[in-house]
Structure formats: C-alpha cells, structure tokens
Amino acid sequence: MKNSNKYGWLLTACWLALAIARPLVAQIASHAPTAVASQPSSAFAMSPAPTVSGKPVARVNGVVMTDRDLLREMYTIFPYARQHNGFPKAIEADIRKGALQMIIFEELVYQQAQRQNTTVPNEKVTSALYELKKKFAAREEYQAYLQSEAFGSEQVVKDRIRRSLVINAYLQAEVQDKSAVSQAGARAYFDKHPEKFSYQESFAFQSISIVPPEKASPEVMKDARRRAEEALRQAQATKSYQEFGLLAEKISEDDFRVNMGDHHAVEREQLPPEVVKAALAMKPGQVSLLIPLGNTFTLFRLNGHLPPGIRKFNEVKDQLRKDLQKEKEDHLRIALDTRLRHAAKVEVL
Q: What are the structural domains, with CATH classification, of the chain?
C-alpha cells in the first residue's frame, strides 16, 4: 500500500472535522501573507514548503483563493510542516487536496452565511481579538504579526475574526445544533442494534515461551524442553501477576516478554485450541502446564475469563451519544458542502 493511499482517509477525516470545529486563531489567518521556510529537513523524506506569490488556485463565485491561502491551510492540516520546513513527500499531494477542499468549503459557507444575514456581536469580535493578543509575549511581537500577516492593520485582523465567527455561527446552526443526540435517541439505537454492543468470549493471560529455531536438531529441541520445564517450575512458584511478569521478562523468548508477558484480553477464536482447552479448565491466578505449539513450548498464567455477552447501556451511553453525534455531523457537513457547491460556481485554477 502506498503512503498516499494509507494517509488519504486520515486527511479526508481531518478536513471534515476541521470544517465543523476549527480553532478560531487558525481561521483568523485566512487570506494573510505567510513567511515560507525553504530548507527541507534531512531527517525525513520531505519536500520543501512551496513558495507563494499570490497566484490564484481557486475561484468561488468570483472570489479568488490564492496559493497563500492554500499553504496556510496546509499548515493547519499538517502543523509539523513548519517545524520540519516542508511536507512529507508521500502525502503532500493529499495534504494539498484536503487544504484546497477546506478553503473552498469555508468560502462557500461564508457566502451562504452572508446571504442569510448571519451576524455576530461586536463584543465577540473584541473578545476574540483580546484572546489573540494574549498569545503574544510582548506588544512588539504582536506588531510584528500585524506587519507580516495583516499588512500592518488591526482592522484586517478584526475583519478576519468576524469572518471566522460568522462561519462558526453558521456551522453551529446548520451542523452542530442539528446533530444533537438525546439519551433517548441513543437508547433507541442501542436497543435496535444489540449486535454492535456484544463482545466475544475472551481470556486475559500472561505467557512464557521457549522458542527454539526453526528446523532445530533433536539435541536443540531436547535442550529447549529442559529449559521449558525449568521455566514451568519457576512459574508455578510465583504467587502474583507481578512475580510471573518479572519472570516472563527474564526468561521468556516470545514478543510479550517486554510487557511482563501480558497479552491482556484475547478473544477465544484468536487462540490455539490447546490454549483454550487449558484455560477453560483453570481459575484466574493458576498457571498452566507446558503446551507444545509447533516447536514452541508455552505456559501461561490465567488472569481472567470473560464469557460472551452484551454491554449494558449505562456503560456505553456517553460514548455512544458522542459517536452518533459525530456521524450526524459528518453527514450534515457533507450534505451542506454538496448543496452549496451545486448552487455555486467553483473553479479550481
């Protein structure tokens, strides 16, 4: 799988989320000049951040989006680019695509909000400007920001703040408010889809394994069994999770030794039949006998056995409401984007 495909879904999800609830300060910077670093980091496969000239990259009902807007949004999606002086080559195209989608979407939302006379109180603008200023350690830093990002004009900053607040207000009304999920709604979903809240039988355990090389000679296998039997003797003498875990870290040869031999909870269907058979005959805290698995000799300490079941509503209700609301937000935002684009003239240049 290529990296661009690997991360594509992440970037799509990222811009969907940003469209619903982006930090105000990130939005304030929209349509402002940006100082661009030009030296790529040698520690990563990076492409230098592109230079900008104010060249148009898109037009929304006649309003032009420039390469400065695009780069700024790319930094919002992938903020580490500033730190590393560039973007990862493998996903730069996806970052650019997501950023272009975002700046177009925001302009569409802003224009629609204006048509519907969406307004924000002056007090909110003043408050947001105050919060922005607090991010600067000294007045001189703020003045430098005005020169580099707002043509030296605080009014430009206020206008961008107002634009961001208008976008937020519109999305609040059209997306967040309409996405609310009541407890009754979550309960109805829970009752209708019990299969989504079921869990399989599982076993929690720690293991110690002696792993001879593949195609080991009879002599090597004999020595491995001897070491496994000694491991079993020591494991049976342990009295707690901690004691078994320390022993596993010391003598086990499987990958779980670095975590005190702990596999945590593993579903029954994922375990070898020999392990399941042994676990079903044990109580938590007991140590199994040696179990040959191919060339490997394994023993384990059973820490818990969870039969199959269905989670209770009270256990999942809070997360369920969040998940259902997030799903509704995504659907509403996508529908809004589709509707606004259908009625607009959007040109990618």
A: 3-180+343-348 (1.10.4030), 201-307 (3.10.50.40)
